[in-house]
Specification:
Largest sheet: 6 strands, parallel
Distance between the termini: 34 Å
Shape: elongated
Bound molecules: coenzyme A
Family: Belongs to the CoA-transferase III family. Frc subfamily.
EC number: 2.8.3.16
Oligomer: single chain
Keywords: Transferase
Protein name: Formyl-CoA:oxalate CoA-transferase
Catalytic activity: formyl-CoA + oxalate = oxalyl-CoA + formate
């Protein structure tokens, strides 16, 4: 079946996580993604966190599906020529080098435009223009600089980073949207353009509600859905709110049966206002449905701690799945805390292609997260990541190089 991005060729100069997640998505949508790697070494993640000696790590394989790999020494004069040929043939160049690396290689925006005015040059950087623009950045730096860490964790503890890779994979997603948008604009203008997704900006975009809260705090000095209310104190900045729900419907993580030994025997419970009476019935506190201290959402806000403690007395008598089943019967929003082990075994996620088993010639079968975005007319089939340089000859031939030229370039160390 045809794919949404059939015919789009991507020169993938990405490494580590942020850039590769972006180009992997584009590959899943049908783009031909040609990953350019350093000869002999490749993307550093090939050898990071290895679980099998001398075999591409899961870190690499899970971020580079459906791509082709060519090895080029882009600092070698003849390697540069090969890269120029690729730039002329591709629609998009995606990179996430440290600031200035592409320029130092000789591929400035102006040079790329000379070679191919239709080329879209898309970059992930740690920061946008400003005091930190020259800094190298990894995931947790972005989480800290983008407002996630200062607003995550508990009031009496230090800032905490989250396991979700919002700095890397989150920015990759932002960049992918920028690229397809630029491709669409190019259909009218015929011109390429630069696309920048800074990791700080991407994280901040995902922390938008916390900037909302900063302004609420500045105006009123208090936020009633935060656990600091009514007994704790608010400072000048948005505090860490533990497991409180980010929205207007208070929620918290509650213990379930087995919590003493199972670190994930918990459920997220939301006291959504429209189902308050049902919640009271389920936990056996029918009187709360009409009592003036509990019947309305504003009346409940100063009593959330007591209310969640009471609900927890009920959830602790059920497993998280039992609780989920009962609560869902009454349309009470809740969610089990699922471990990665449970998620990996979940049949419905396998069925939708969100979790996929892939076969790899060196490592055998492994699980990966498939394309989370489903298009009805452009289904995703997840193919294994390429071995280092696996497609060098194939791509060189497509660029018009003869077998003799390829051998000569290889001997010269350019590819
Ligand atoms: C992630 C990061 C910190 C890694 O830094 P690093 O390992 O030092 O790697 P760099 O990006 O600086 O690139 C290293 C060098 O390899 C060179 N290189 C890369 N591919 C090459 C190739 N095929 N042939 C020859 N040289 C190559 C680059 O030109 C650069 O050389 P230079 O420093 O002399 O200019 C940095 O790339 C960065 O800040 N990226 C932007 C933000 C980002 O994406 N971070 C998230 C990572 S998940």
């Amino acid at each position: 079946m045809a794919k949404a991005l059939d015919g789009v060729r991507i020169l993938d100069f990405t490494h580590v996580q942020s850039g590769p997640t972006c180009t992997q998505l584009l590959a899943w949508f049908g783009a031909d993604v040609i990953k350019v790697e350093r000869a002999g070494a490749g993307d550093i993640t090939r050898e990071q966190l290895r679980d099998i000696p001398d075999v591409d790590s899961l870190y690499f394989t899970m971020l580079n599906h459906n791509k082709r790999s060519v090895t080029i020494d882009t600092k070698h004069p003849e390697g540069k020529q090969v890269l120029e040929a690729l730039i002329q043939k591709c629609d998009v160049l995606v990179e996430n080098f440290a600031p200035g690396a592409l320029d130092r290689m000789g591929f400035t925006w102006e040079r790329i435009q000379e070679l191919n005015p239709r080329m879209i040059v898309a970059s992930v950087k740690g920061f946008g223009p400003g005091p930190y623009e020259d800094c190298k950045v990894y995931e947790n730096v972005a989480q800290c600089a983008g407002g996630a860490a200062s607003t995550t964790g508990f009031d009496d503890g230090p800032p905490v980073v989250t396991g979700a890779q919002i700095g890397d994979s989150g920015t990759g997603l932002h960049l992918a949207l920028g690229i397809v948008t630029a491709l669409y604009q190019r259909t009218h203008t015929g011109r390429g353009q630069r696309v920048l997704a800074a990791m700080q900006d991407g994280v901040l975009n995902l922390c938008r509600v916390k900037l909302r809260d900063q302004q609420r705090l500045d105006r009123t000095g208090v936020m009633k859905e935060y656990p600091q209310y009514p007994n704790g104190t608010f400072g000048e900045a948005v505090p860490r709110s533990g497991n409180a729900s980010g929205g207007g419907q208070p929620g918290w993580i509650l213990k379930c049966k087995g919590w003493e030994t199972d670190p994930n025997a918990y459920i997220y419970f939301i006291t959504q206002a429209p189902v308050w009476a049902k919640i009271c019935n389920v936990i056996g506190k029918e009187e709360w449905a009409t009592h003036p201290d509990y019947a309305t959402a504003p009346a409940r806000l100063p009593r959330l701690k007591e209310i969640f403690a009471e609900i927890e007395r009920w959830t602790m008598t059920k497993s998280k799945f039992e609780a989920m089943q009962i609560l869902n019967k009454y349309d009470i929003p809740c969610g089990p805390i699922l471990s990665m082990k449970e998620i990996a075994a979940e049949p419905s996620l396998r069925k939708t292609g969100t979790i996929v088993e892939v076969d790899h010639p060196q490592r055998g079968k492994y699980l990966t997260v498939g394309n989370p975005i489903k298009l009805s007319d452009s289904p995703t089939d997840v193919r294994r990541s390429p071995l280092l340089g696996e497609h060098t000859d194939e791509v060189m031939a497509e660029l018009g190089y003869s077998a003799e030229q390829i051998t000569a370039l290889r001997t010269a160390g350019a590819i």
